[in-house]
Design a protein that fits this description.
Number of helices: 1
Helix content: 10-25%
Distance between the termini: 43 Å
Low-confidence stretches: 16-26
Strand content: 35-45%
Mean pLDDT: 86
Number of strands: 8
Order of helices and strands: HEEEEEEEE
Length: 131
């Protein structure tokens, strides 16, 4: 009887975890990014998805920024009603946290901005996960 009780308790715990009753949620899948950002302080967005967890930092993984360029990135809602601070993106093959206070179920995206002194367009590849 004790063995059956332990098995039943274990099965109940696994069931509660997998159904989300205990607040466990899967994060939104990371979206691939392959965009061109205009020079001269130009901007572009990529990675639009639905926010799953309120106020959680987004994660931006930069595979490559063309040339030897640097730029800024931030998380924002698709309607530009809420944004996070700009983060300096200065290295290839590096991950960056994009702080934000965007709430659950809002559409979130990553915005990129070139420097005023960058004359040519910049290509950015990587992935974005809004969380």
């Amino acid at each position: 009887m004790k063995m059956n009780r332990k098995i039943m308790t274990g099965m109940l715990a696994v069931g509660l975890l997998t159904t989300g009753v205990l607040g466990v949620q899967a994060e939104e899948e990371a979206r691939g990014i392959n965009i061109t950002v205009p020079g001269l302080n130009g901007t572009n967005t990529a990675g639009k998805q639905t926010k799953v967890i309120s106020d959680m930092d987004g994660y931006l993984n930069i595979y490559e920024i063309s040339g030897d360029n640097k730029m800024d990135g931030r998380a924002e809602t698709a309607l530009h009603t809420s944004t996070g601070p700009w983060v300096r993106l200065s290295h290839d093959n590096k991950g960056y946290l994009l702080p934000n206070s965007i709430k659950k179920d809002a559409k979130i995206t990553a915005r990129f901005s070139s420097d005023l002194t960058t004359y040519l367009p910049i290509t950015v590849t990587g992935s974005f996960q809004g969380n």
